[in-house]
Fold this sequence. Notes:
The chain is an alpha+beta fold. It has helices spanning 3-19, 34-41, 74-77; strands at residues 23-27, 52-56. The protein has a domain at 3-58. The chain is built from three helices and two strands, in the order H-E-H-E-H. The longest helix has 17 residues, at 3-19. The protein is extended and about 40 Å long.
Amino acid sequence: MGKEKCKEKTEKRKGEGKEAGLDTCAQEAWSMKQESVSDFFQVDDETMLFCGMAIGYKDPNALINQLKSERRPLEEWATFIK
């Protein structure tokens, strides 16, 4: 499955989670740790787990959920073509 299809399916699952009253968190960083994830799931060398998703109930009072990371302004790294 290509990256765009993966993103499409991830967004669909996030929406389904919200509809069920759950929170979701996409875990795309797994693609950088594919060996350990592949070992855990016992997949062949031709298969790569590109992303995963945490699903559950967010605790809005938990300190970790107050974290807001700094982001570069969109105009510094993106170009929109009309």
